[in-house]
Amino acid sequence: MSDLFADAARERQAESAPLPQRIRPRTVEELVGQSHVLAPGSALRRAIEADRPPSMILHGPPGTGKTTLARIVAERSGAAFEELSAVSARVDDVRAVIQRARDRLGGNGQRTILFLDEIHRFDKRQQDSVLHAVEEGLVTLIGATTENPYFEVNAALLSRCTVVELEALTEQELQTVVARGATALGAEVPEEVARLIARRAGGDARSALQALELSWETAQAEGVPLEARHVEDAARKRPLRYDRAGDRHYDYASAFIKSLRGGDADAAVYYLAAMLEAGEDARFVARRMVIAASEDVGNADPRALLVAVAAAHALEHVGLPEAQLNLAQAAIYLARAPKSNASAVAIWEARRDVRERGLLEPPAAIRSTAYGGASARGHGYVSPHEDPAAAPATYLPEALLGATYYRPAADSEEARHGDDRDG
Prior knowledge:
Rossmann fold
């Protein structure tokens, strides 16, 4: 009786499941996208087709097919499929899966694929619990994560797995997904509406199908054809794939800084907007601009530091969203400013010498004279304001005489400042 109820439940669940679940691809051929790792003849495709899939870590943004690919591998191989979420699974759960895998392998020779979703949420002890089973071949592990596995997964486990990076789907690929979804729904989707859904999905197939299903249901309820306004209502906010401590954070921050350094004001404003829209801490952005003002602009335009610091202060006083204007002004100023890293190179090289050679004694003429007996030790400073001729000729430690740390860029404002001072 329980089997009858279970079968009926599965049948009804399949009918009422969300559209992404109902049309989930069952074969590699049906999977849309990821041709860079699954093209015919590729190593991973050959391994799957030859029923020798390796343990792997699937890394990529949401809606790119991580879970789908794991299920395809399991179905292709005829292996038992065990799925755990690292959010809720305990070490005991992993051990139970491993024991069942051992029983299957010993009983009828059936292999087990363990799909571990959000594997980056497992701590070291939990990851270690599956390590030996992977090493011994008791289970084929397929871990899925939206985070960089090289940051989040133990090196020991990582070395036993193939890391496969999945990419966000292109708009053309998403239109293929939408077409499949429309067929499953029996929906008529105008080409311009399909393009809108693909554009709003942000590379996420699941998001595209959810928007399609909800917008189609809305149009059906109104008794009108599917229109762009239905999509706009169903997908009010484009999903932004961003993390404030992982790859996207570092990638966008890097692109922002390099755009400032490269003098591309348009790119700098775009990456600034992208980070703010994605919820990045605006104070982090402001701090990066203050650093760039000295590291990349320096004395080629000393006003850049004033502008960057003023923007940081404005952010604290005004707050977002209004402070976006101050941040944008500073970003544009820094991008358009003349560039010199001479100040940055100077402190980097000076600190290198300190680390390599230790603290070298200053010349006696510029050491402190604020104690009795200083003059007897040869400490006697003459200020250049009082007697330029008697002022010290050198200020560096004797072992560093002739060293040059600050080298202004030729034909620059900072070089002209040096010429004016020397004159």
